Amino acid sequence: MVPRKFEYFAPTSLKDATSLLKKHGSDAKVLAGGMSLIPVMKLRLGSPAYIVDINRIPGLDYIKVAGKSVSIGALTRHHTIETSKLVRDKLGILAETAGWIGDPQVRNMGTIGGSLSHCDPSGDWGAAILAVRGSVRVKGPSKERVLEIDDFLVDTFTSALKDDEILTEVSVPLPPPRSGGAYVKLERRSGDFATAAVAVQVSLDAKGVCSYAGIGLTALGSKNLRASKAEAALLGNPLTAKAIEEAAEAAAEDAQPTPDPLRGSAEYKTEMARVYTKRGIELAVQRAKKVK
């Protein structure tokens, strides 16, 4: 199938882009990588009358350290994040997450800002940014806002973006020493959406006690979820096998999966939440212990 007719704009500034969005409201959609929007339009699951392509706007493709955070521009491609030495050295969980996304074509074209804005509960970035407690910067015609990722992810395909706003940057705090992360994913075949996936980031103090725990869930609810009970089960405790098992059980309680004829029952997904949380924590702890 082909999309319905639409009017195409390619602004060269954020001011022009947000002005177009303000003018056309909910009839307009932003095009970044197009890896989600174009298939939706081709299948006519969505038919925006206006497309605002932001790829000609300079200054939205970067990865840099800014103070105590790593800042990633909204137009940064998944492959760029996957292969970035800065990301691999400072926030390995993000490089690992990027490597799980789709296939090479998707990773070369898709963007972190576009993926987060799409708010697919099966999308990988939401869980990873939850695990590292990131925030997003959004720009409208008259003002700019910074939102914690928990507030940005609202519901299935629904973010906190207003019709005239564009996500411009993702910011992630730099982890302290003795930190490690992991993104583990169950998929039917390579490049598929997750049946279930878990993002884990932990930090250990000098005695091996968990001083930070972040756990995000993919495809286990109406949006990417924070496994708050699982985080609480880890925080302040030595990460023994028993503690990890208790956290994995808590993550299964945090999960809110729905049955899927292609990817399994709610009961199966709940069990996979437990299994993959345990694997993710074990891998994150192993990596944290290697970092001085």
For this entry, give a set of tags.
single chain, 292 residues, alpha+beta, Uridine Diphospho-n-acetylenolpyruvylglucosamine Reductase, domain 2, Uridine Diphospho-n-acetylenolpyruvylglucosamine Reductase, domain 3, Enolase-like, domain 1, 5-stranded antiparallel beta sheet, 4-stranded antiparallel beta sheet, 12 helices
Characterization of the model:
The protein is an alpha+beta fold. It folds into three domains: 7-52, Uridine Diphospho-n-acetylenolpyruvylglucosamine Reductase, domain 2; 63-173, Uridine Diphospho-n-acetylenolpyruvylglucosamine Reductase, domain 3 (2-Layer Sandwich); 179-288, CO dehydrogenase flavoprotein, C-terminal domain (Enolase-like, domain 1). It is built from twelve helices and 14 strands. It has helices at residues 14-24, 37-42, 78-83, 85-90, 92-100, 104-109, 112-118, 125-131, 149-152, 228-234, 241-254, 266-288, and strands spanning 7-9, 28-31, 50-53, 63-66, 69-73, 135-139, 144-148, 153-155, 158-159, 166-173, 179-187, 194-204, 210-218, 225-226. The strands form four sheets. Strands 4-5-10-6-7 form a five-stranded antiparallel β-sheet. Helix 10 runs antiparallel to helix 11 (241-254).
